[in-house]
Amino acid sequence: MTKIKICGLKRKEDIQYVNQLQPDYVGFVFAKSSRQVDLSWARELIQGLDQHIKKVGIFQDMRKEAVNHIAEGCGLDVLQFHGDEEPEYCKAFQREVWKAFRIKDDESFIQMQQYAVAGYLLDTYTAGQYGGSGKTFPWELAVNIKRTGLLIAAGGLHADNVREAIRILKPDIVDVSSGVEKNGLKNFNKMRSFIEKVRE
Ligand SMILES: O=C(O)c1ccccc1N[C@@H]1O[C@H](COP(=O)(O)O)[C@@H](O)[C@H]1O
């Protein structure tokens, strides 16, 4: 079954929502974003999180020492690198690593072959923005991609398009942030609809 990651939790209410709805993963954004959390707030949120839900930290071109400090402090299960991190950088961690690739055209996939990571996350290329854009990429571009780890589909997913994304991309995991928000905040009903669609 396709697993689910809900990204960008930043309020205690968000934690209550996911504890009730039980996605497989949740994401805490440590990169610059309207969803950014710092180490101490993330720790406080995580104290209330159901232990069965895996914790993903989202980073963008951050020093390795800083990433490790946050990962230790929060007990992160997965590190998601969403910037221009090089293959060598991604190999330098003891934890599971997912690398995000921003898809624009066929050439966007050439770079992917240089990485040996546990997860390959496909997000939409948006000029001047590294993630959380709420925009989709042409999924057909990724139908035959070669990869040696998990495939994580991201970028503009929501309850009304996620089944089509699963049909075309056959991902191991679907990742959503903007698509389960209302007025910039996570919304319980949108999260529930998204999760129901994936699991129906
Ligand atoms: O969500 C963010 O604010 C964010 C900021 C910086 C890097 C990545 C970020 N989130 C990731 O973006 C994709 C797509 O999100 P969306 O569903 O299109 O809003 C997803 O992988 C998030 O983990």
Which residues sit in consecutive blocks of at least 5 with pLDDT less than 50?
none
Provide the residue-averaged pLDDT.
Answer: 96
| Radius of gyration using CA atoms only | 16 Å
Q: What distance lies between the first and last C-alpha atoms, to the nearest angstrom?
A: 10 Å
DSSP strand count = 10
Output the number of helix runs. Answer: 6
Strand order of the largest sheet: 1-2-3-4-5-6-7-8
Bound molecules: the ligand O=C(O)c1ccccc1N[C@@H]1O[C@H](COP(=O)(O)O)[C@@H](O)[C@H]1O
- Helix proportion: 25-40%
State the major sheet.
8 strands, parallel, barrel
CATH class placement: Alpha Beta
Fold-level CATH name: TIM Barrel
Question: How many domains would you count in the coordinates?
Answer: 1
Keywords: Amino-acid biosynthesis, Aromatic amino acid biosynthesis, Isomerase, Tryptophan biosynthesis
Catalytic activity: N-(5-phospho-beta-D-ribosyl)anthranilate = 1-(2-carboxyphenylamino)-1-deoxy-D-ribulose 5-phosphate
Pfam families: PRAI
Family: Belongs to the TrpF family.
